[in-house]
Design a protein that fits this description.
Distance between the termini: 35 Å
Strand order of the largest sheet: 11-12-17-16-15-18
Number of helices: 15
Helix content: 25-40%
Structural class: alpha/beta
């Protein structure tokens, strides 16, 4: 995923015939200028498409119907340049199936103090035209994002793009398929969930495939495919001495490469966007997939371990949202704590599967015993993560709704060599502090599996949650545990009545 420009956001401008042909021509011209400016901006990741201004209920209904059917349309931006009586929008909005952003702006940034007259006032009415439209959206209880400010303000562009990226992630979920090799890790609660409800609500499907189907693909790998991938490993990573050509563990590297090729062929042929597996079901495989899973994630596939299909889907969505941004998003697990009172930190890792998009430097490729799974020693990429502002996100099934829990964190340089821990690892400090951040996560029911991101901000996740109809709990520098517990109680009451 190198660009999101194939995704279209349609720009819809509301007006009415009351103002006459000349005013309507100026409304259309201004709207087209704004659309083109947004489209050309380096701050906007998607393509903006100008649509003729809408002046009647019939025109609004038709363009909403068209947006629903347009394959590349991922959402619409609405703006009321003049006063657009909002009852005209009811039937169109009732059928609109694409995410909605309401841009509360006006064409001119400044009031022209010396020349302002009633003609200017009749044309530039968004200050109250948008309020009329806003009332109707609130009355219809439609989820949307409101962005207020001048359309050339960089902060406004940043907020618009956050929503565009969230809309792209949502669009990617529609019709997506995720493969579950085997079943859930036995007796684990949080990785379970209602797959039927998820498909109804989110648009993606999750189906189980026997590991034997994957093993068949692994066994069908050709010598040429194997040779080509081993060459990639040699060029892209620091190979441990015992994995080099002719060395004692070279066969382990070859087995890992076959697993990667087999998984990739399975996913490509089936049109899958992500997958999950469990070390409790590896029948016919020589080792637990390590480097193969890491590299597939780096190429954009969603993944989570232990049958956790929800996190696999979230990882994929966050990768789409972060397309072209610095950093990356990756499957992660809070593994253990450093409770030094002067330097509280979390050590994040997983047995094998942490995405190299987080790597501070060129990863090492090594083979070591795992201690679980009962298979041969797996090959994995070993590296330290980068420092910087980051976040952890978790998607959990609360029974009557899905909840997205987000904790802002500060990633740290890994301060020790960790010579006996040969896995990829990241260290961070939860915000606002270790006690509040970790306790808040527990109160919120956040999972031990997350998507760790150094490319996305909380705003991206809030926008995504709003589009997807997710309950959203955010733990950040302003979080107070007492207030958080109250928020959770109020939310529980809300969802008892809101179906």
């Amino acid at each position: 995923m190198k660009s999101l420009k194939h995704n279209e956001v349609w720009f819809l401008t509301g007006s009415q015939h009351l103002y006459g042909a000349e005013t309507l021509r100026e409304v259309a011209a201004n709207a087209e200028v704004i659309t083109q400016s947004l489209h050309d901006s380096d701050q906007i990741s998607v393509s903006l498409v100008f649509k003729p201004i809408v002046k009647t209920a019939e025109e609004i209904y038709a363009v909403c119907q068209e947006a629903n059917q347009a394959k590349n349309c991922i959402g619409v931006i609405t703006w009321m340049h003049t006063f657009s009586p909002a009852k005209m929008w009811i039937n169109g909005l009732k059928i609109l199936q694409k995410p909605l952003l309401h841009l509360h702006t006006q064409f001119n940034r400044d009031i022209p103090w010396d020349s302002i007259d009633m003609d200017f006032m009749n044309l530039n009415q968004s200050a109250h035209g948008d309020r009329e439209f806003g009332f109707l959206i609130s009355r219809m209880k439609i989820n949307r994002k409101v962005v207020t400010g001048h359309w050339q303000d960089p902060k406004v562009l940043e907020s618009i793009d956050s929503w565009c990226r969230a809309a792209a992630g949502w669009h990617d979920w529609q019709g997506a398929k995720y493969a579950r090799f085997g079943d859930n890790m036995r007796n684990v609660a949080v990785t379970e969930g209602d797959k039927v409800e998820a498909e109804m609500k989110f648009g993606f499907s999750v189906n189980t495939f026997p590991v034997g189907d994957l093993v068949a693909k692994i066994n069908a790998v050709t010598d040429q495919e194997l040779s080509d991938l081993l060459e990639v490993y040699e060029n892209d990573y620091f190979l441990a001495d015992n994995l080099k050509k002719g060395a004692s563990r070279r066969s382990a590297l070859a087995d890992a490469a076959k697993i990667e090729i087999g998984m990739r062929n399975f996913l490509v042929e089936g049109g899958f966007k992500g997958f999950t597996n469990t070390f409790e079901d590896l029948h016919g495989m020589k080792q637990l997939p390590g480097i193969g899973t890491q590299r597939l994630m780096a190429d954009g596939y969603g993944y989570a371990g232990e049958g956790d299909w929800k996190t696999a889907a979230l990882v994929r969505a966050m990768k789409v949202m972060g397309t072209g941004l610095e950093g990356g998003s990756a499957f992660m697990e809070d593994y253990t704590y450093h409770f030094d009172p002067a330097n509280n930190m979390v050590l994040g890792a997983h047995m094998l599967e942490v995405d190299p998009v987080l790597a501070k430097e060129k990863p090492k490729c090594e083979v070591h015993p795992l201690g679980i799974g009962g298979k041969e020693d797996p090959v994995r990429l070993v590296f330290n993560g980068k420092a910087g502002l980051s976040l952890n996100a978790s998607l959990v099934d609360m029974g009557n709704r899905f909840r997205l829990v987000v904790n802002e964190v500060e990633a740290q340089e890994v301060p020790f060599d960790l010579p006996k821990l040969p896995v990829a690892r990241v260290m961070w400090k939860p915000l606002p502090d270790m006690h509040t951040g970790c306790s808040g996560w527990i109160y919120s029911g956040g999972a031990h599996h997350t998507c760790f991101s150094q490319s996305l901000r909380t705003e991206h996740l809030r926008d995504f949650a709003k589009i997807a109809g997710l309950e959203n709990i955010t733990i950040d520098k302003n979080t107070n545990l007492h207030q958080l517990e109250n928020e959770l109680r109020w939310n529980e009451l809300y969802y008892q009545f809101h179906k």
